[in-house]
Amino acid sequence: MSLQRILRGFLLALVVGVIVAALSAQFSVFKKLVAPAINVINAVPIASFTLLALMAFHSSQLAVFIAFITVMPIVFYNTIKGIENTDKKLLQMATLFDVPQYKKIFYIYFKTVAPYVVSAATVGIGFAWKSGIAAELIGVVRGTIGANLHTARIFLNTADLYAWTIAIVLLSYLMERAFRFFFSKVVTWKSL
User: What angle do CA 96, 101, 102 make, to 5 degrees?
Assistant: First the structure.
C-alpha cells in the first residue's frame, strides 16, 4: 500500500510540476501567482503539512498528498530552469522556418528540459519516500510501512525498525531505477 500511494503522489507531482512550470514559463502573470504558493509549500515543514492534511483528508490518502506536496516544488523549479536554458537561437530558427508548436515542444524543449526533469525526479523519489513514510507514521495509517515503523517504535523492536528502513531504501532505489529505465526508453523513442 505504501508503494502504491507514494508512487501515485510522485507521479502526480511529476505531471503537475511540469505542467505548472510550462504554464509559468509561457505566462509571466501565471508565474507571479504560482511562485509565492510554491515558496510557501517549500517553507512549511512536512510534519505541519501532515497534521493539517489529517484534518482535511482521510488518512489513507495522506501519503499521496504529502509525497505530492514534497516533490512538486522540486519538479517545478528544475523544469523552469530547463525551459529557461533552452537555446534561444534554436527557438528563433524554428520560428523563422515556421516550425509547428508541437514539433518545437518535442524536438527542442523535450531534449533540453528532459535532463532537468530526470534530475528532479531522481531527487524527488527519495523525498517522496521520506515524506510519505513520515506521513504514514504520524497518521498511523494501517497496513503501511509507516504504521509498522510506528509499531516497532512503540515496542522498541530494533530489528523491525532496521528491516523496515532497509525495505524503504530498497523500494526507493528500485523505483528510481525503474523511472530511469522508463525515461531512457522514452528518450530513445522520441529520437527515432
Answer: 135
The grid cell for 23 is 504554464
Q: How far apart are CA 80 and CA 24, in angstroms?
A: 8
SS3 string of 123-191? HHHHHHHHHHHHHHHHHCCCCCHHHHHHHHHHCCCHHHHHHHHHHHHHHHHHHHHHHHHHHHHHHHHHH
Distance, in Å, from the CA atom of 59 to the CA atom of 139, rounded to the nearest integer, reads 6
The pTM assigned to this predicted structure is 0.88
Q: Which pLDDT score, from 0 to 100, does residue 22 have?
A: 94
Q: Give the helix/strand (H/E) hosting 18.
A: helix 2-26
Is a pLDDT exceeding 50 seen at residue 192? no
Q: Which of 37, 46, 45, 35 is nearest to 129 (CA)?
A: 46
Label residue 171 left, alpha or beta by phi (over 0 means left) and psi (-120 to 50 means alpha). alpha
